[in-house]
Amino acid sequence: MSDTVEYRVGIGARRTHHFDLEARFPTGGRSTIDLLLPVWTPGSYLIREYERHVTELRCHAEDGRELPVRKVEKARWRVTTGGARTVVCSYRVYAHEVTVRTSHLDDTHAYWNGATLFLYVEHLRGAPASITVSDLPAGWRITTALAADPESPARLRAADHDELVDSPVEIGDHPLLEFEAAGRPHTIALWGRATFDRDRLVTDVRAIIETQARLFGGLPYDRYTFLLHFVPGGYGGLEHRLCASVLTSPTNFADDKKYGDFLELVSHEFFHLWNGKRIRPAALGPFDYQAECHTRSLWVVEGWTSYYDRLLLRRSGRIDAARFRDKLGEDLTRLHRIPGRRHQSLEESSWDAWIKLYRPDENNVNSTVSYYLKGGVVAMLLDLEIRRRTTGARSLDDALRALWQDFSRGGAGYADEALQRVVEAATGLDLEDFFARAVRGRDDLEVEGPLASVGLALKRTSGIEASDREGAWLGASTRGDGGRLRVTEALDGSPAQLGGLSPGDELLAWDGFRLDDDGLRDRLRGGHAGDRVHLTVFRRDQLTDVEVVLARRPSDRIEVVPLPDAPEAARVAYAAWLDDDWKA
Ligand SMILES: [Zn+2]
Fold it and tell me: What own/partner pairs with CB < 8 Å and gap ≥ 24 does 219-223 have?
């Protein structure tokens, strides 16, 4: 087949962490062709410049004749074909970064994301690709959503370049957990050391899959694969159409709460197979792999997914309603500790993901709000608004199913402006006010009223810990740094900021007494609003005095508790929402 792109992926250089690649591109008679490598990978909105790991790029014709190639942009190489019908390109890619969105090769496994490895040619993006893995050690297997040749399992096929990029591959001697859920086969590949109850994991993941399948009326695939990586302290997930990569810490299995959070992550990535991959903003597929793809709707892609990952964990019985309320309280607390929530709308946060959320700096806390965090809260408020105004006849589930109906079939994405209309049509409600305030606006969200409609209330206290109600507030975040105590953030309007304390300052003394992290906490516990304190700091190399006036700790620790004497209608709404009886 003349218009198939053929790749060979050698994994022999495991000690030096180099993938050895060969790619064969039909030229179609062109005098030059441009080889490109994606500069980012879908689902992770940061320009990562994968091309920086490419070395030893060479091109030749099929008869062995070397072809001139030179770089003309940061991730674009131009080959003069000299009449060759096929350009054969060999190169190496350094891969030694263990995350869900990069590639990693060592003695224990090979894991890749297609964006990091596979050069492509624009006119061949729609052409099928074949991938042959070579230098496989004995006993190693390949696990991927890509189709494998039944005769030769080291030969994989992708329908086009997008599928190649969207299908990470795990190669090694990893164990597999294989099971059926909702009538379809599923596989979990496990890399890294972890001791846990595998039957329990399968039971829980199956429950997640079946609950989500019920919401959407079935599963839109023949088989699905989870690539599960265990790394101490690791955390992350990346969604794909037919699989997900999930990175977690092996210690999370020993603790029920952490295990619940891990299941939430699995539920999150799985939910994306609908929301994000098949129901998606127009900017998110087909992708421009060479530049940022901006959309105002990441609050839907990630916020709705953040809401549903937990709600569906509740519906599947994996967590109880009390845990759901506790986690909601934690989210509201985090949101209310971010001054930036008043400076950026959800649409703005979505659009600027590439330069804000994915590139956090010392001022993010004052300038930015996460579309995951606020988006999840807004998804819940939208759900409660729909439930209240339709007396429980409709919910956000109906909007999701409408999006699924409208935008999944033809494969086209939705325009950012279309979303509100679809939700309105699915629920029969005018939601202009809601979207203007919660989605396009920057004001604080009204949470009390909506929660009262389901028999819940907010309890606000001060203090980082529940036991920590007293004391004064400085409003600076600090980090211990090799025995030094450094200011990392000064919150907008806080005593720290008003007094002129800056990120980067090294805190030395409090009214002349030496400070360390514990010392600062103790001083604040013993302090009072209005206390005037002399802080001695190093600012760069200059010894400097800063005077701050301490304030009262804001009551920004939020718990979600039952509303005293909640009316019957609210109790009924609560039961319908969280699938549990309302209890005082
Ligand atoms: Zn996500």
Answer: 219/182, 219/183, 219/184, 220/273, 220/274, 220/278, 220/408, 221/184, 221/273, 222/184, 222/185, 223/145, 223/184, 223/185, 223/186, 223/187
The continuous run of DSSP H or E covering 287 comes out as: none
Each residue of 381-393: pLDDT tens digit?
Answer: 999 999 999 999 9
Q: What is the pLDDT of residue 203?
A: 98
84 contact partners, CB below 8 Å, separation of at least 6: 27, 61, 62, 63, 65, 67
Output the pLDDT for position 483.
84
Distance CA 74, CA 188 (A): 37
The Cα 394–Cα 370 span in angstroms is 28
How far is ligand 1, taken at its centre, from the CA of residue 357, in Å? 13
Give the model's pLDDT for residue 517: 80
Task: Give me 259's structure tokens.
Answer: 């295990």
User: Quick one: tokens of 193?
Assistant: 């050391």
Distance from residue 272's CA to the centre of ligand 1 (Å):
7
Q: Which residues of the chain have pLDDT under 50?
A: 1, 466
How far apart are the CA of 425 and the centre of ligand 1, in A?
26
For 458, what's the count of Cα atoms within 13 Å in the CB-facing half-sphere? 19
Between the CA of 370 and the centroid of ligand 1 the distance, in Å, is 12
Please provide residue 408's backbone torsions phi and psi, each rounded to the nearest 5 degrees.
-85, -30
Give pLDDT, residue 42. 97
For the full predicted model, state whether its pTM sits above 0.85: yes
Q: What is the per-residue pLDDT for 1?
A: 47
Strands 109-112 and 155-158: unpaired
Cα of 306 vs centre of ligand 1, distance in Å, is 7
CA–centroid distance, residue 300 to ligand 1 (Å): 10
Task: Find the 438 Cα to ligand 1 centroid distance in Å.
Answer: 20
Map residue 452 onto helix, strand or coil: helix
The alpha carbon of 474 and the centre of ligand 1 are apart by a number of angstroms equal to 34
